[in-house]
Every structure is written in C-alpha cells, then in structure tokens.
Fold:
Amino acid sequence: MKGTSSMGKHSKGKTHIRCPRCGRHS
Structure:
C-alpha cells in the first residue's frame, strides 16, 4: 500500500500500532 501516509493518519491504530507517527509501515 503506497497511500498509507494519508490513510495512516486516519487509522493510525488500525493499520499498525508500531509506527503510528510514520504511517508508512503497513
């Protein structure tokens, strides 16, 4: 997934709880 930076901000606790600030490691 390349659109994690935008989606990672909305669901930072759903995709990955390890790097919520990065939002790039899906």
